[in-house]
Amino acid sequence: MDERFFSATLPVVNGHSEETLPLIQRLLADSGIGLAELDGIIYGQGPGAFTGLRIGCGIAQGLALAHDLPLIPVPTLDVIAFQSGAPAVQVVMDARMNEVYTASYRDGVAQTPITLQARAALSVPADIPLLAGDCAQELNYPGKTACELRPDAASYIRLVRRGGYATVAPEAAGLLYIRDKVALTATEQQARKYG
């Protein structure tokens, strides 16, 4: 089967929510298909930036409801593990506040749940040689190779095509936050600075 991908990237800045729908319309026009012709809509379930996750899920829900399409939620770390192509990888993603979201993968299958760990106390199994993710290189984890990766749309599609991801109705779409706090309070910042 001939495979073509139409994708675009928006920089994460203020106003990207207003640019997303016109971008989707342009991509559909370029591909020559309409939303009603899709089999479903894949969206990044998280973890990740709270606002970006909410915007992405909200747009996916709205489009799916309007065109009677199922949604396919995919955890962000699964996509990074897939992109790495490694048989064994520890995925690490910046969670801010000196923490990372992390999970271990073997042959593309999660071996651990996605957890939140302090950067300085990151635990990686000895037999996993590779760290992959948006902050892998800056972690400088001893004895591990680092690969800087961020998820892309084509990888979401290829991963879902391999199977293992269930569809959900638009009203059942949810996000994988891991934690419900996005920033430290002023008191917590001071305690970390001087504690």
Structure characterization notes:
The chain has 195 residues and is α/β, with parallel strands linked by helices. Helix content is 34%, strand content 21%. It is built from 6 helices and 8 strands. Strands 3, 4, 5, 6, 7 and 8 form a 6-stranded mixed sheet that branches. It has a two-stranded parallel ribbon with strand order 1-2. Helix 4 links the parallel strand 7 (130-133) and strand 8 (145-148). The longest helix has 18 residues, at 50-67.
Strand/helix succession: HEHEHEEEEEHEHH
Biggest sheet architecture: 6 strands, mixed
Helix content: 25-40%
Find the structural class using helix and strand composition. Answer: alpha/beta
Task: Please report the number of helical segments.
Answer: 6
- Mean residue pLDDT: 89
Q: Name the beta content range.
A: 15-25%
User: Which overall shape is indicated by the principal axes computed on the Cα atoms?
Assistant: globular
Please give the radius of gyration in angstroms: 18 Å
Distance between the termini: 59 Å
What is the strand tally?
Answer: 8
Residue windows where pLDDT falls under 50 for at least 5 positions: none
Organism: Vogesella fluminis
Protein name: tRNA (Adenosine(37)-N6)-threonylcarbamoyltransferase complex dimerization subunit type 1 TsaB
Pfam families: TsaD
Domain Gcp-like: 15-108
